[in-house]
Structures
1.
Amino acid sequence: MGSISRLDPELKQLSELRGLPGQEDEVRDWLRWRLEAASLSPFTDSMGNLIVPYPGGETYRSRDRSHAIDSDSVFRPGSSSIPNIMLAAHMDEVGLVVSGVDESGLLRFQTLGGIDERVLAAKPVLVGPHGLPGLISMRPFHLQKKSEREQTISLHDLYIDIGARNRDDALRWVQPGDGVTFATTCEPFGHGYAKGKAFDDRAGCYLLYRLLTSGIDVPFTAVFTVQEEVGLRGAGTATERIRPDLAIVLEATTCADIPGTPEHAQVTRLGGGPAFTRSDSGAIADPAWTERLIRVADTHHIPWQWKRTHLGGNDAGRIHVTAGGIPSISISLPCRYIHSPVSVLSLTDLEHAFKLLRLFLVDVVEGGRIR
Amino acid sequence: MMELIASLSDAFGPPGLETEVRRTILAHLGLSPGSWSSDALGNLYVTNSPQKEVSLLLAAPIDEPGLFVTSHDDQGRCYFAPIGRLPHDNLHGCLAQLNGNIKGVFVKAGENWVIDIGAKDRTVAEKHVPVGTVGTVAASAHVMTAAQERITGKAMHRALSAVLLSVVKQTGLGEHWVAAFLAQQEPSGRGARVVGEHWRPEWLITLELIDSTSEEGAALQVGAGPVLVLRAAHLCSDPHWASEVVAHAEAEHIPLQRFAGDLELPMSERLQVSGQGARLVCLGLPARYTDRVWQMVDLADAEKLARLLIALCRNSTETGSEL
């Protein structure tokens, strides 16, 4: 694969696909079609996870593929046989769900996943299975009392306008329970950045998809998980099925290198390289594998950074306590304005993450020896 | 047992990095590699029993609240994020231990807690304690001079591991039971989540510290005997088995203090519902100041709890799975 410092049309497509928790069909279909075209055999489990066994190349075909364990029954750096590696990225994105329709045809809604309600006003959205255009609105500035203007915006103040004449007209097109996604196009942005929606975690999906189609020799199992944003639900069942020796979660994470944020509160920095997790609200990254990941990055002069907070979490939170406990690590892409209608990532970070991922996988199956 | 409690409490063991605690435990038991195992989360298991024949699992926690360094300022001080329930309200002036051997002092800088490692500037601090460095509170255990039978330290919940070790030492490795030393309990009982699935025991005994200085534990007294937790915030001890435990305690002339309250006990709660679930009895040591840097337990309580567990384990060995 060549450089991805320019916006890859496939990343743009992945970002713009609609995939609310439990409704990841568009993303799953996009991936499945392309992976089948690449002669792989993806399948979907009962939760909706897309699981892709990747057989690897000739180099490792003749090697022992029994699950590699050492004296304490856990696969650790230095083991010699080829481990069962699971790579996971989640397909779902945060969004909204229609909760009701009022007499004037305006839609009331709730959030799906963690969203700061204050950033929603005046954002274009796509409503329902057919992507009906809508606009999140609130009472105009001129009609608000002074006291109202000083209050924080809450969901109670917001509604979605789909241009319906009245309630009956709206109900012809939209039903309570319909999902709502942000209508944000993905575009190149500034110096080597991209802006778009759902980089959390389509950027991880993109990395995993590129890895599957890159011709890498190392065998592994890819899982595009579902319902991460509402409780890490898909990752658990996929892990129970695969029972890997090592799990690597590919994610997007908070980036707070913005004005007004003191240095000690900057979780990650855009352009600082992929972020590694020590501990977050859901998991403590396996220390031995994290140190190995750092060694690979340092050996190959790939910039990286720590995720410098214990807040937030990802599928590793479920994976590491499933199937008797799975050593798990995360490689995350810093993203500004995560969990909002638009976010920003560095294409250079993406490129570094991809390079690191390939090198790390080879390192793992080579027994943890740096080459 | 006092020396063992002290060495366990002093060991460096933030969540996920409990290696030093495991080493201390294994060194004390002098076990060969075949008689213990661990899992991906760092839980340590000691038994003579094949996996499918364990009927009873005894569990004690081994980690402690930790932290990791997140950034530095121009004065060479380190900002950090907690791993688990770090006692923030009591940190001021306490010592920190970073990477196991670098010391620092917790101080408040405006709204934030920082660790001063004595670095003259940011560059020196970054060199010695880079971002990502893991640490804990540093507080060496002390036997209390006023009452020689009590001990204080930073991780007195490891007195429960000392109790469990005492049981293993005196009864030998379990034929039908496993001693489980649980890692990563501080962040919401994560180690416990995988234990039940691994062993699938029918019976569980969890060991916890119960705070006698909290509102919930006001009726408890340190030195008045072990605690039988009948009910906590999210668990109930099995009433029939709890009765059996009481009967064993009476037969051994061990006073039991009973506790029922809204205390959060993540390890026991997670264990009870992990795997296919198990009948649980939660036993504890009364302790002072469990949410502070220094906690205190009584040696006589620990010894009595060990005697009670030995009686229960011998009963398990004699009756197999028919507890």
Note: The first strand of chain B starts at residue 36 and ends at 38.
2.
Amino acid sequence: MNFHLLKKCFKQRYTISFNVTLFLFSGICYAQSMSEDEKLQTIIHTFNLKPIDSKEFYLSEKYALGQNLFYDPILSGNRDVSCSTCHLLDYGGADGLPLSIGVGGVGKGPQRVSISGREVHPRNSMDLWNRDHNNVSSMFWDGRVEIRNEISGKFSTPLGERLPAGLENLMAVQSLFPLLTADEMLGYPGDKSASSENAEHNAIPNELADLYAQTGAPILHSDEIFEKLLERLLDFQSDSESASWVPKYRELFEKAYPETADYDISQVANALAHFIEVAFSTRGSEWDRYLNGDEEALSVEAKKGAINFYGKGRCAVCHSGETFSDYEFHSIGVIDTDVRIMESQRDVGRYAVTGRESDKFKFRTPPLRNVVNTSPYFHNGSVSSLFEAVKHHVDPLRNINKYHSSGRFLLEKEQADAISPLLSLKLNLNDSEIGTIVSFLNSISFTHTESQVQKVVPDAVPSGLEFLH
Amino acid sequence: MINNGTLLQNRDGSVKNPGKRVARVNTILLTTIASLLLVNIYLDYGKPFFLLSEKSAIYSSHYIDCERAQKSELELKLGVGLNQRGKDRLFKSLEIEKLSCSEKSLLQQQMLSAGVKLEQVRALEISAAMRTY
């Protein structure tokens, strides 16, 4: 043996031992899978994801008119409900209630209760975020207001041919319907306001509701109701001081629509839609910042959630696009409210609009921007936590053969059969993965800054009435 | 070099003990052989054991996700009541879901090349499948 050579080798013993260590542990070191960011890049490329466009907070004259109309209870039959009663910024643009309480209610948000003894509105209040987005093709849980033809811009609504002309977009069309719905804003013939505030207004009869007293169907009297509403806003004849709103609204209309002096309901609807588009536009969520290239914008948990959302959760099949909805109709086996189960009056959803058997129990996919703030969830607000709402999608068939306390099935066979085959296969998500999806949903939320809230909520409205905000 | 009985004396007068030198060489050789033996034992048993312990959970998870994705793909091809745009999005979701298949394959190759036996990997898969289904 060449001793000197061996000695020379041992002089390099540290180098050798370092190499040996590297070699020994290399198996563990190189067994790395794709990072979250690499997976997300694949997702972004595959789904062609883009951040949502942020709208400028441009406070035009039309915005000012829409803002006042949105918050002013003068638009409701008994002058005690405004759009903001059920669309509050504090509750993500919804009201925090399972089922909305329009007329006949007192209180704000989840504390609002019905004292009229009448049935409350049968559906959960929807948020208003980004409803001007090009993807939005239908409104309401059952899509009863929708774009019939994207090219001609024709709308399909319960008003049919009676739909006023001059409506600029789907949001404007939608904004007319709460005005025509008895349990939302219109009220019932002969009813007085449930609110003890605004006493002078309570003494005035609901002249709008009186118009449909004979038929019981406000929709058949839409023209008269709209005309009367315009008259209330702009030509109200009264000796009382409460008519002081007329000159204020006249001024707002003149500034918003300087090209005409002939006002109709379409201008009310268009101004409301414009206000909603600007005020309820999400601006700069963490997810949008991530899509713009800021890798630090999302937490690791939210990144994992996004991977599960677009991957094994298959959420993006229906909650797609920038607003996270396909605006199509699906059944996911949501349990009806106790009253509906006990009275065997199941909510048939889309079927009530189309009459097609295949549409039974289907509801429009809700958009998910700000969903963390709009609890409770689903068309009837039957689930209070977002975690539970996501978990419901994992196995919606689990309620088959379970009984309600009344002895009836929680889900009728017909309802179970209607559940989307996509979900009936059962998703492979554990609680921890559902938690990551909730984190991701947090990252697509947006909250107004204090200065933005001041731009949205007026100090007072022309009628001088109290309003919820 | 002059043989002085027990010691070897160099020409410069320094003295060296040949017994010590042999002992030193022996020690070095023995240490080398022992090290090589240890390395061999580590590579044959230790490294696969540690790697398998470390990666079994993630491998099982990838395996189950991949199996589900492949099974779903077959089932969903039969129809899920979606329109064409919905189907397109569904297959995109499945593509993402199937990233777990590539990750599983990558991990499997790394484990096999590190000395983990194929039977051990299969046992891991069976155990994961039994826990899940």
Note: The longest strand of chain A covers residues 145-149.
